[in-house]
Amino acid sequence: MKKIFKKSFLGVAFLLASSLNSCLKLTKDDLTQDETETDEKDPFMGHGGIETTTPNEDSVVIPISPNDDGEDPQKVDPPGEEPEPEPEPEPEPEEEMIDSIILDQSSLSLYVGDEVELEPTVSPTPLINSVNIIWQSSDESIATVDGGVVRGLGYGHVTITAYVEGYNKSATCEVDVYNHLVSIDFDSEITIQAGQEQTLTYALNPSVGIKNTTVSYTLSNYNIAKVTNGKLKGLKEGTTTLTIKANEDNTITKSCLVTVTPKPIDAVYDLVDEGDHYSISWLNDVETRVVLPSEFNGKPITTLIDLGFDAQQIEYFKMPSSFTTIDSSCQCFRESPNIETFIFSDNIKEIPEYFFQLCENLTKVYIPRSLESVGECAFDFTGITDIYFGGSQQEYQYLNTNYQNGNSVLAYPNSMVTYHFNASPDDL
To answer: How far apart are the C-alpha atoms of 68 and 166, rounded to whole Å?
Structure first.
């Protein structure tokens, strides 16, 4: 069966090929006639004006048909003319991409009613004018934002955000809004005792939302009182003006009158009641400037006995005229490094020995006319430059013969000392 089918298939193929060859084959005479007619018309054209080739006896000639649009595919353009180029298609525009956005400030503070403008910058920078920035405040009761302008409305913290419309890009600025300080509530008068301290109290208005709540103090007379770490201390009897100033806004101030009253004598000194007079035996509150009291409870204070206090910080010391005696064992100023000025009472008769020994900064001393004797080495190694004497030069020269050894600084004349005769305690 396979062989029969093969032979049948080959037979059919042969018949189809023979039939096609018969349809296409031209006789020699027909070809000669067509060539003759063709030669008379156009030596280059075949049947129907279509170019052909001369076939041999066994060739098959297949006509070339025109294209669907009617043009000859082998048509040649006239010499010297170039075909027009096809226009290139325009490229589709690339989408502009925003890499990031930043603000010129990441945090700021302002006061209620104030405005601050935030400046955005996008990357790439040239695209800043082709994008839309959307602004947003996290709490519009604290601050609003319009076109980047932030306005403070109330005390608090708020976040301002700038969004690039159409992109997932944003930037933020943290904003603190504070209240303006209006005034300071403070006492109009303060009365304090010398040596006492009290903490100063005040109130800022408004009480909340102030950026800087610290204050500073000034006094018109620092000899009357002083302020240290918010505490007022009276120094001596008198008045001074205390001014409190807000560091938030130094135009906001408040002043008050400070009156310093003297301490009760018995709070400062240990007094010994001698019947008709008092003696001082102890100084409880030592200051740099000391003026002894002249009386207590209607009785005079007349005697300085073995004063058991440390006089290391005293610079100025004055005995009023009520004092008549310094106990012979009293050496409270010996080796005091800071004493500069000492005023004896006009009624003192004797200065004990070693009383001022090694007081190298003692430069001024008032010696009364009543003085009769000076103890051994009482002025040894002092730095006296000025002696104020209550009497005349002749009286001082007479008293000088009674001074004992170790007091050469008092000797007259002394080229290192300036003498002030007929002087009074008020001259120092």
So the answer is: 51
Type of residue at 230: G
Closest CA to 309 of 340, 331, 279, 278: 331
Q: Which two tokens stand for residue 93?
A: 């525009």
Contact 303, 325 (CB under 8 A): yes
What does the alpha-carbon distance between residue 355 and residue 346 come to, in Å, rounded to a whole number? 18
Provide the terminal-to-terminal Cα distance of the chain, rounded to the nearest Å.
159
Task: Work out the burial of residue 10: count CB atoms within 10 Å of its CB; fewer than 13 is exposed, 13-18 middle, 19 or more buried.
Answer: exposed
Local confidence band at 78 (pLDDT 50, 70, 90 cut-offs): low
DSSP-assigned letters across all residues of 392-421: -HHHHHHHHTT--TT-GGG-SS-TT-EEET
Residue 173 C-alpha from the chain's centroid: 19
Helix (H) or strand (E) holding 10: helix 2-24
**What's the burial of 31, exposed, middle or buried (CB within 10 Å: 0-12/13-18/19+)?**
middle
Around Cβ 339, how many Cβ atoms within 10 Å?
Answer: 24
More confident residue, 175 or 55: 175
Handedness of CA 132, 133, 138, 142 (dihedral sign): negative
Q: Which of 146, 100, 103 is nearest to 127 (CA)?
A: 100
Highest mean pLDDT out of 66-70, 287-291, 392-396: 392-396
Other Cβ atoms closer than 10 A to 324: 17
Q: Show the tokens assigned to 360.
A: 């190298």
- C-alpha 76/C-alpha 82 separation (Å) is 11
